[in-house]
Design a protein that fits this description.
The chain is 57% helix and 2% strand. The chain is mostly helical and 241 residues long. It has helices spanning 3-9, 79-89, 101-144, 146-154, 159-187, 189-193, 204-230, 234-238, and strands at 19-20, 30-31. The protein has 8 helices and 2 strands. It folds into 2 domains: 1-65, no CATH class; 109-238, no CATH class. A two-stranded antiparallel sheet has the order 1-2. Helix 5 (159-187) packs antiparallel against helix 7.
Length: 241
């Protein structure tokens, strides 16, 4: 049996040598001879379930099965030898659904990979559009305050004061955007959890990396307009319309 079945039936005990019965098999008692690691036989998106593995001569339920062969080198190179062995055992036994483990693994993940590829493409486009939008908003906001900046500089404000003014405005927009983005990401957790395997959709490292990336983009978008605003001639700014 697998580890999940052993822990559920005999938690904290050694299952080797234990005996149990199946529903409908009350007249048969089965002895545990080994415990193997868990396998997601019901699909990657499903919870690991208790499994029991029985020898074919003792199995009263199994009507079909799979044979897994470990080889050295190219697995398909061993196919002629496998066919010859099966033909020697039973000439009428067909071999169907022949595939390497890598091919079966790829088929199981093909749908998820396609969905994640689409999400990645759209996310990349959204990142580019958001970057352009952040820069455009910050540049436009600085343009609207050109006269104010000119007045401040005419009254004695220095360039670092202008830089601080623009960065404070950008920081406020950054914090508001980060808060809305994190809230939206957390709201989409359920949809994303069905597309990934072995990765938590609330991974702090991922959220932290994305947050820092957006912060870097926002600061860069603030830097260019801020430098431009700090170089404004007060007389030109005061005449700006």
């Amino acid at each position: 049996m697998n580890r999940t079945a052993a822990e559920r039936a005999w938690p904290g005990e050694d299952p080797i040598g234990k005996r149990f019965t199946f529903d409908g098999w009350k007249d048969r008692r089965i002895t545990v001879v080994g415990v193997v690691d868990d396998v997601r036989s019901a699909g990657l998106e499903n919870e690991i379930r208790p499994d029991v593995y029985m020898p074919l001569p003792q199995n009263m339920i199994l009507v079909t099965g799979n044979v897994v062969i470990r080889t050295r080198g190219d697995p398909m190179s061993a196919l002629p030898a496998v066919r010859a062995v099966v033909r020697a055992l039973d000439p009428d036994m067909p071999l169907t659904r022949i595939a390497t483990m890598g091919q079966r693994y790829g088929r199981a993940l093909a749908h998820r990979r396609f969905n994640l590829l689409l999400i990645g493409i759209f996310a990349g486009l959204a990142f580019v559009l958001a970057t352009v939008g952040i820069y455009g908003v910050m540049a436009y906001a600085v343009t609207l305050r050109t006269r104010e900046i000119g007045i401040r500089m005419a009254l004695g404000a220095e360039r670092r004061d202008v830089l601080a003014l623009v960065f404070r405005q950008g920081l406020a927009l950054l914090l508001a955007g980060e808060a809305l983005g994190l809230a939206g990401a957390l709201a989409c957790n359920r949809a994303l959890s069905s597309m990934v395997f072995g990765i938590a959709t609330t991974d702090p490292a991922t959220y932290g990396a994305v947050t820092l990336a957006w912060a870097a983009v926002a600061l860069c978008a603030c830097w260019v307009p801020a430098r431009r605003a700090a170089r404004v001639d007060p007389m030109v700014a005061l005449r700006y319309e």
